[in-house]
Amino acid sequence: MDFMLTKQHEMARTLFREFAEKEVKPLAQEVDETEVFPRGTVEKMAKAGFLGIPVPKEYGGQGCDILTYAMCVEELSKVCGTTGVIVSAHTSLCCDPILTYGTEEQKQKYLPDLASGRKIGAFGLTEPGAGTDAQGQQTKAVLEGDEWVLNGSKIFITNGKEADVYVIFAVTGMIEKRGRMSKEITAFIVEKGTPGFTFGTKEKKMGIRGSSTYELIFTDCRIPKENILGQQGKGFGIAMHTLDGGRIGIASQALGLAEGALERTVEYVKERKQFGRSIGQFQNTQFQLADMATKVEAAQLLVYKAAIAKNTQKVYSVEAAKAKLYAAEVAMEVTTKAVQLHGGYGYTREYDVERMMRDAKITEIYEGTSEVQRMVISGALLK
Amino acid sequence: MKIVVCIKQVPDTKGGVKFNPDGTLDRGAMLTIMNPDDKAGLEAALRLKDEYGAEVTVITMGLPKAEEVLREAMAMGADKGILVTDRVLGGADTWATSQTLAGAIRNLEYDLIITGRQAIDGDTAQVGPQISEHLGIPVISYAQKIQIEGDSVIVERQFDDRYHVLKAKMPCLITALAELNEPRYMTPGGIFDAYKADITVWGRANLVDVEDSNLGLKGSPTQIAKASDKVRKGAGEKVTLDPTEAVDYIIDKLKVKHVI
Question: How far apart are CA A100 and CA A68, in angstroms?
Fold first, then answer.
């Protein structure tokens, strides 16, 4: 067992950190305040190859492993949770399912534009009545001649209005499963600009406020028959498998937020003086920092293990669930403690830890709540 | 077109500076980066490659660890990397360094050699022009813009309050300023490719037309008498006053310190 990163991964981390410090960090506060999607940063990331890290070179990607991608999301999220999730949703939830389930024609058509960042990707599964219960889908797709006709809506979609290519799930019929009728779900690729595909309201969120979270509305939206992703009726499996990968991205985001908050706090407690000495000299501060650092490192090991598992194992649901569960809860705990150690200043929007605490909360909720991760982990134990 | 870019691994000024007992830098013990002027030179070469098509070879002289800076250059888009490393080359000043690099470059075909203006550790700005002298080719220093026209280069050379436009036939050597451009980032895939690529490693035996007496610490006319880390000055005092008050304030301060 080897805990050393390769020189390649070390150099990649240097690259991501330099980019994050120079291009992302100076805008993080403004992105949060204005709730504007950081288009300029996305264009710079596209140029640097950050939007196709695990996509093979034959499809215009960087051809790197999942660990490199996870480190990218981690380093971006250290300074800006919004930027981290933009890359994560684009890569894990749009590029990955097209790469895994797409036909050769679909891969050739969509991946070069997505991996180069000329186009942005998104993923539409959640509906008003179908969050954790993904089977509760209401959006329908009916085959009429050579076209699928979509009707329904999706909510809380990351990269919502900014994306160009969407992986959308819809009910295509009813099937009998173990004596019970259940919905047949199918995945589709939908392009922005397709008649009948419009955007609803923009969500006003607690955190990751620049990530453009929108409602997607499909009204007699006709897409070509060949835009079905994978086989008809296999959508639920595609969604679950895609989310396994997505959880590694979100776990990386959570990890980055925790690391960023810890870094800021270490800097702050050295400078902040109370009772004639820096607050870092108080044992309470020292013990809090020790706990934070220990948990952050444990989270990092789980996240990296899950990232490596996605490259080496066919099934990595449990590794991804453990990484996301732990990293998200550590992110929430560490950012909360970071605000506490910053005192009154930490509660103001002048300091990054306040934003990080708000950004961290969503990591316990999206792409499977912490409760869902516990279901996945315990389900494997009790199988 | 073939372009050779000379790059140097230098201490990262964000990390601490460490010295050997002889006053030279203990490069093995410090955090390092690619020298900023050299990085701009590399970016200039890569832009020429993008625009006109070129093969870009990066060359560095240093410890075996300096291989990292070649990999970084290749991850940015350089095609080949050459590391010149040998114990007998250690402790070189600008004369011995330029002799070494010229001796290595004599093995290569080139139309253009680009170096940084100066390295942030030595700050001499001598190595680039010295290489051109050893190789007997023209040099244009302090380049802030580079264009190719046929078999010539047209360079804007920065000057105090203006710039000069100079034209030289290739092969020639150009020294680049960090202000020349904004260097591109490495790409993630480029990093992995760079580590798969072979780096050519040359030692003393590979240097062409160079005397031993011009190499390493022994071949260096400059000897370091003493070196020390920079003593940091205090942050100073900032006050905001109107001009008349400010003059009185400064005069008072100078009187208190018995300067006037």
Answer: 19
DSSP category for residue A203: P
Choose from A62, A72, A75, A91 for mutation: most chain B CBs within 10 A: A62
What digits encode the pLDDT tens for the residues B69-126?
A: 999 999 999 999 999 999 999 888 889 999 999 999 999 999 999 998 888 777 788 8
How far apart, in whole angstroms, are the C-alpha atoms of residue A138 and residue A330?
35
Annotated catalytic residue within A30, A127, A367, A371: A367
A58 catalytic residue (yes or no): no
**Closest by Cα among B62, B56, B31 to B43:** B56
Q: Does the ipTM exceed 0.95?
A: no
Residue spans of alpha helices (H) in chain A: 7-19, 25-34, 39-47, 66-79, 81-90, 96-101, 104-115, 235-271, 283-312, 317-346, 352-363, 370-381
Minimum Cα–Cα distance from A15: chain B residue: B186
Q: Please report the pLDDT score of residue A179 as a whole number.
A: 87
The reply to whether B185 touches chain A by the CB within 8 Å rule is: yes
Shortest Cα–Cα distance, A359 to chain B (Å): 26
Cβ–Cβ gap A64/B188 under 8 Å: yes
The span from the CA of B214 to the CA of B174, in Å, is: 23
Phi, psi at residue A199, to the nearest 5°?
A: -110, 140
CA dist A366 and A82 (Å) reads 14
**Which of A31-35, A41-45, B78-82, B125-129 is predicted with the least confidence, judged by mean pLDDT?**
B125-129
